[in-house]
Amino acid sequence: MSRFFSPKYEALEPYTPGEQPRDMKYIKLNTNESPYPPTPSVIEAVREEAGRLQLYSDPECLELTEVFAKRYGVKKENLIMTNGSDEVLNFAFMAFCDSDHPIVFPDLTYGFYPVFAKLSGIPYEEIPLRDDFTINVDDYIGIRKNIVIANPNAPTGIALPLSDIERIVASNPDNIVIIDEAYVDFGGESALCLIEKYDNLLVTGTFSKSRSLAGARLGFGFGNPAIIADLHTIRYSTNPYNVNRMTMAAGYRAICDDEYYMSNAKKIIECREFTRAELEKFGFNVLPSKANFLFAESPEIDGGELYLKLRSRGILVRHFTKERIKNFNRITVGTKEEMTALLTAIKDILKENSK
Known about the structure:
By secondary structure, the chain is of the alpha/beta class. The protein contains 10 helices and 13 strands.
């Protein structure tokens, strides 16, 4: 760090994104992207909008907001569009958390939550998951602190039922509860239906997973109009043109082609269950996932060793070094062909290790 770097950030540990290597062509199962490309109409819309890049994008995202609100049966006042879901999450931390309003979240969850907290000097608490990696809902009942929960959780893939989410929201009426639904289209229950009932609920999501737009960076948040207005205050105070023209066009067309993306989500669910069953035949412990990835460990090989041996064979998965999960790897669900290649490689690796 330079001698000019502010001391308030000296202890900041930035988020570590999944690797994007260029040394060879990999089967990429490490960053939870969709294996399916966007529709031709999305690509054409982006191409057309590229010819108007001399003009600022619409700061209200009006056309995209209207079509998206219609898709989910809410008013446009209930919705904010952002540069990926990371941005709406960051806005929420900035808008609703401070030294008098700390935030809590699980100890094993999306790695950006502690980063956002540290970046803004927000006190936070990490609540341990149970031994089986599930969230103990009672830990959050009436806690009187702001809460953020990824549902389904990452990196475990385990989801809470809607009834548990409602218990948490209802028991903390004077605090914001953020439900991060990045993976909800792969089998989870959305809390969107609760935003009219509870004025302390913010539901966030992304186009990066089920809608094949990870490279476009488009996210969103649902909440009551007052919460959304607060988030817009932060947005207009930082980057009012936060969604660029091409991303806006891509998002609009993706919603118009929604049947294609939801069909792909079903394919991914089917392939996830196929892969889970095959890994269990190899003796793996695979957590019950409602996401587009599996979190798995083998009693026969260390998680880091398996990651490296797969990488040497041109297959990327995500390995974490935290003590409690260092034997696990998070495996994005790709196409049937990609998962078959993964399973073949794992079978060969386990066979080599047994010699």
